[in-house]
Amino acid sequence: MTPTVEVCATPEDEGCDGDTDCAPRPPWSRGYGGTGADEGASIASDPAGNYYVIGTFEGTIDFGAGPLTSAGGRDIFLLKLDPAGALLWSKRFGVIFDEVGRAVAVDGSGNVLLAGTHLTSETVATSFGGCGIVTPYQGEGVFVAKLDPEGNHIWSRGSVSPDAAQLERPFKQLVVDALGDAYVTFTVTGRFETTPSLAKLDAATGDILWSQPLAAAIPAHADHEQQKDEVLLAIDSAGDVVTTSASIVPVSNCPCVHQLTVQKLTTTGDVLWSRQFSPSISAPPAAGIGASAWAMAVNAADEIRRRHYEASISVFGLPHGEHVLTVTASDVTGASASAQRTVFIDAPPTVQILAPRHETVAHPTLRVATACVDDHPEDCTVRVMADIHGSSLDSVEIARGTSAVDTVVDLSAFDGKTFNLRFTVLDTWASSFLQGATVHVEGSPLLTAVDDAPGRILDFDASRILFINAETEFAVLDRATRTITRLMTVPYPYWLNASSRALLTRTGAVMEVPGVPSAGVRTAVYEWRDGALLRLAAQGRIAFVSGDYLAYSGSGTYLRNLASGTDELVLSATLDPVSFDVAESGLLTYVDGRSLYTHMAGVSTLLLRSGDEITRPVTDGLNVVFTKRVDRNVYQTLLATPSGELPLGVAPVAQPAGTDTGAYQLHGGYIAFLRGAYRSEQVWLRTPTGEQHQISFFAAASRLDDPPGRLGHDGISDAGEVMFLNPPKRYLGAPGAAPREISSQLGHARWFQGAWYVVMGNTLFRVDDGSSGTGGEGGSGGGAGGTGSFTDDGGMTSFAGNGDAVRVGSFAGASSTETGGGARIDVSSTGIGGAGSGVSTSATVGSSERPVGEPPMSGGCAVAAR
């Protein structure tokens, strides 16, 4: 035998010196990399004592064999060092996307296996010296590559994970068995669970021999605490695989106790045994406490060694300050050993919030009261921060104190803003915070608070307030006795949004309640009626409540008589809330396809049929107004008349539910609508006699005060005053008078029983009774500018207002409209009759121009009994 260098991993005496062991090498320590972002992740050694190091870097780095420059984001580096730590070679792998080197291992032949994560696209693939490899779905994937001892490519695999888009904490270890087959672990995180998994790859080709989960999907908790520990791997002498994976004790809420599962699997993936290690579930929970494995190894006797086991000990009752902790460990023979440590007992502080309540309005002052609950409150600092909605500032401190804060804060500087309070307490050693109330700041002297509720107000009348408490429970407050009646708990409060409708009725209330998301149920419809909760529809929506009538959808579209508690099926089709409406008289209007109907006393009547898409019908029992789409993203507001369609103005582009803004409002024969150029629309009013008046005169666009849950009904008084918004302010306007500034745009205004009210958060305000023609300043761009009017009921009437000349005639004969731009529209109609009679119109446009800010008129309709 020829002497060679002793191979430490074998029992043979390669050095022929009579000693099969290697001489101890002198210790060494070296630094690698530079000042940039570089990080080593894993190290492995080969039989000759060389080392391989894998990691990640950005920019340019030189380990001693020449500079390596990343291709874009993060790239992978692989180093080979000799037994003394001197660099033999370095390599870079990566493309313009991020690649992360996470694990390295060496097989019995000295080949190097490396693993990590990478991103690719249809045109960009990662290469480790061979063909480019890609990830599934162009997402993140777990790669595995095999190189020879000189770093030359043998094979590589693009991903061993089933769904590249959902990887979380992929792995920290890669192991190789005696045959050269590789095992890698990864954790797939779904929306509500994590799944630790294991894959085995063939030594020669890199093909996946098998892949399987190590545990059933581990559910997350409501506070989003999920599995935190990586899956660990080891190989025993028989080639079986030992794994550890962590999960969370299945308690209802956190802080959560961690538990650990150890499994042994055969080379084919069959489970030989599985053991779980966990503290008692009855033990007091604390974040991160429990059984966790940080490292694992298998010795020559196939004994499994795990490093790290955590458990909690109770220090309840020990006072604040220093204490000596003695820990004694005993074995089965009775031998013991003890150790002492000095510990400092300082319970983490917690926050107690006393004021304000959720959805409170600062008008403009606000009482803020909070206390630090701590074992040494003298060292506790309390800070109250305001996280302002829509602000470039992250947060603003509004109060601070030691041990407690109880003060009144002037928030005039934040008038018209909404913010969330955040309460933070910190002592010498720890801190904690608690998200507080949502607060609205309103400083208008024209608003007087007349009532409030212990939650966000949804609806009100003279004697009751319907509100939602902490976004989880519908309830009704009796305004006289202050008695609260709880209606129902919201089972899925996260799905509640601004478009969810909840309205008072004379016998109780009706509510849209979020349904089971996994079952595809969006909302169910419930009625609280005379003390009993009724489910009207397992899946449906509410259009509106007016007087004794409710319009809602379920398996079909229904009109419910709230006085008798009976339903009438109006349409077998299920309509969405913006496709039907109801008036106090019980008149229902709805859109079916491209036809507009009214329904009264069991009879549906066709008002008109359109060649264009129509939606959003609103009625006050006297008029029906609707929206027509006449071009891409061009919508027109139209009044349905016995003669056909009467154009009023423009309508905002339809938005998703919850973000709609109203294009018109109806009340007592009055119609408020928008007219004007795109993003400069102003508010107009049509009176019961047909006159039209411009109400707002601003340079910026105005809009109606119309929340998504009450489109079309609340913003006109009995006398024809209109409440509207010109952000960031709310105004009250009337024909012939300058708009009067009322308040900020926060909340929602409503005309109710002869007075104006504003609902904002948990507070009901009454608006000052002053005339809309006095007080306040005129709007910018118009000041107290004049208004114009015209009559469309008969004859030809000239209109002059805001610079445009318009002539409008009745639909009862030939008519024309002219604008200052010279556009002319001629309209003729024949066969006019009452409701249910046949009507036809035709329209011709004499110019390609159309009135400024107005969409083109569309003709063609028919009226017939359905």
From TrEMBL:
Skewed-composition ranges (Low complexity): 789-798, 838-848
InterPro entries for the chain: Motility_Chemotaxis_Reg
**Disordered: where is this region?**
1-39, 770-798, 814-866
Acidic residues composition bias: residue spans: 11-20
Q: Where is the composition biased (Gly residues)?
A: 772-788
Q: What protein does this entry describe?
A: Uncharacterized protein
- Recorded source organism is Sorangium cellulosum
